[in-house]
Amino acid sequence: MNKIRLRRMTMLLALIMLMTALTVGCTPKQDATKKPKDANSENIEASANYPMDIEDQFGNKVTIEKKPEKIVSLAPSHTEILFSLGLGDKIVGVTSFCDYPEEAKTKEDIGSFKDINLEKIIELEPDLIIQYGQGEEESNSRLKEAGITILSYEPETVEQIIELINTLGKVADTSSEAEKVTKDMIDRRDSIVEKVQGAENVKVFYEIWHDPLMAAGPGSFMDELMTLAGGDNIAKDAEGEYPQFDVEQLIERDPEVYLSSNDMEEKTIESIKSRPGYENISAIKNDRIYLLDPNIVSRPGPRIIDALEIVAKSIHPELFK
To answer: What are φ and ψ of residue 217, in 5° steps?
Structure first.
């Protein structure tokens, strides 16, 4: 594991720990002239899609033999995607950090994504596991030996998130639902981008961690959100997606908006203002410090467009009155 990925996973874990960052209708009267639909026809249609060959984000090629009936999610963002696709009843296990939607809390807890309970997962006998990142080789091998299919994803852009939702919709035979979800996301994204188009770019900094200071750098989804929202990320030329960022450089580049997540009690607007040298930063002088909901802004799932809207309103409040 390279240093950037290790740093990235460490900070994502820290953010998540510090947070402690989808009808029943009327049935129409059946036309007596038409033959009733075969009770097994839906199952037949579904089975026609399988077996299905899939290659995940990391080049792992697997075959989905049949429609997944029991799924384990190893990341909050993946859990949110599955629920958005109407697959709540198929989910049998989630991590201890999967808290949205509310129903996610009722699912079997299989540990954190860094310390999963392999025995419990195997006991659940899932058809499919969706994990964040490549996972640990030893754990992957053990789960595969138990006959469990694993798909690995780590989306870092809005387009990758949309692609993942469509992929999981295909895998779980809920493509029509995936199309609805992603169309809504695309429409909302385009509306926000259109609203900020033409507005003057505002210099923005997003704090991932404070000691040492770490930023949302190039390639991170927060970097993309700030850019889409009409912001100019002052850490856009830093090395890596979540790099350490020199305080002196922060002061010199002088962001007009300072963003971070509201992930710990001791992090407040006042505590940020009181840091040495911060009094010279325009964002601090003009009270443009915003602490954002970590469950929304740190999860690359369906609510990433909510995150985009939040960021856009922070950068260009005058355009959202």
So the answer is: -100, -170
pTM: 0.83
Alpha-carbon span 84 to 74, nearest angstrom: 16
Q: Which residues contact 28 (CB under 8 A, 6 or more apart)?
A: none
- Which value, to the nearest 10 degrees, does the dihedral of the CA atoms of residues 179, 182, 188, 191 take? -80
Give the pair of three-digit tokens for residue 295. Answer: 């469950």
Alpha-helix residue ranges (DSSP H) falling in 85-220:
118-124, 137-145, 158-171, 175-196
Q: What is the C-alpha to C-alpha distance for residues 283 and 184, in angstroms, rounded to an integer?
A: 33
**289 Cβ contact list (under 8 Å, min separation 6):** 258, 259, 260, 269, 272, 273, 283
Q: How far is the C-alpha of 113 from the C-alpha of 85, rounded, in Å?
A: 22
Q: Return all residues near 309 (Cβ < 8 A) that are at least 6 apart.
A: 188, 192
Record the tokens describing residue 307, joined without a space: 């995150």
Written as six digits, the tokens of 128 are 């499919």
In the structure encoding, which two tokens stand for residue 116, read together? 């999963």
pLDDT digit string (tens) for 10-36?
444 444 444 443 333 333 334 434 344
pLDDT at residue 149 tops 60: yes
For 215, phi then psi, to 5°, come to -115, 160
Q: Residue 282 has which token pair?
A: 């325009």
Phi, psi of 36 (to 5 degrees): -65, 145
Average pLDDT, the chain: 88
Quote the pLDDT of residue 46: 53
114 burial level (CB within 10 Å; 0-12, 13-18, 19+): middle
